Input
Amino acid sequence: MRTILVTGATDGLGRELARRLAAGGDRVVVHGRDPERVRRTRDEAGGTTEGVVADLAELRQVDRLAEEVLDRFDRLDVLVNNAGTGSGAPGSGREESKDGVELRFAVNYLAGYHLTRRLLPLLVASAPSRVVNVASAGQQAVDFDDPMLTRAYGRQRAYAQSKLAQIMFTFDLAEELAGQGVSANTLHPATYMDTTMVRESGAPVMSTVEEGTEATLRLIDGLDGVSGSYFNGRREGRADAQAYDREARRRLRRVSDDLVRRALS
Ligand SMILES: NC(=O)c1ccc[n+]([C@@H]2O[C@H](COP(=O)([O-])OP(=O)(O)OC[C@H]3O[C@@H](n4cnc5c(N)ncnc54)[C@H](OP(=O)(O)O)[C@@H]3O)[C@@H](O)[C@H]2O)c1
Output
């Protein structure tokens, strides 16, 4: 039985993934920020599930989540970094996490960055294992002069920057883990699925949660030997150019490690 941690499993794509994986016989670790929503998701999913709770907008909680997973589970076959906050309602402004980090960057990217790094020993011990980062086709280069977007905030820009950062992290991770039996891939699941974040943003719904679920399950289940790839739905795709820029990825790692160190010190 595989053990699969899905973050943000209490709504949208994550909830459907949890349901499908539990129905298929996997042990699913359902993550959410609200214990009641986690309980409800587990009840609805059936099968073998466990619950973990953490608000990803606070790195201390991310750190505690990692600690709990390392304590409670003897293996981790797949980590799905799915939790995310969308671009927000039209007209909404800049927000920060509990650590003072721009909120989209914090929840969509930095939380998964830290969680994954903390869980690497378990993933390596469980090899062959996988990291699947749910990113987006909405991508925008990180401006290293103002990564926290204090000067020119745009809600879509904030979302797109955080999603490209996830992809850059995935490419680094794949290189780092080469030869250790842990793959790292990332994807745009589907365009404007009918989920809470899309409805809140005012964008027109264009695809179903099932479409995104199929594309994500493909990375969770299959594609042996593939690592360091970005998929647009079911097809391998090309991410924004910055993702292939090693110097930009090095700068992103430095920014990320500084933010994590500061938040946890
Ligand atoms: N929808 C699309 O068309 C689309 C397209 C491309 C990529 N994506 C990506 O797909 C992933 C899933 O999105 P979705 O459309 O399924 O969105 P969704 O229905 O809004 O679900 C988002 C999930 O993330 C959780 N979450 C949000 N902020 C959190 C925080 N601070 N701490 C812990 N959990 C938090 C939510 O928890 P609650 O249940 O407590 O709110 C929920 O479980 C995201 O990474 C998104 O960027 C979506």
Observations:
- The mean pLDDT is 97.
- Residues 3-264 form a domain with the Rossmann fold fold (CATH 3.40.50.720).
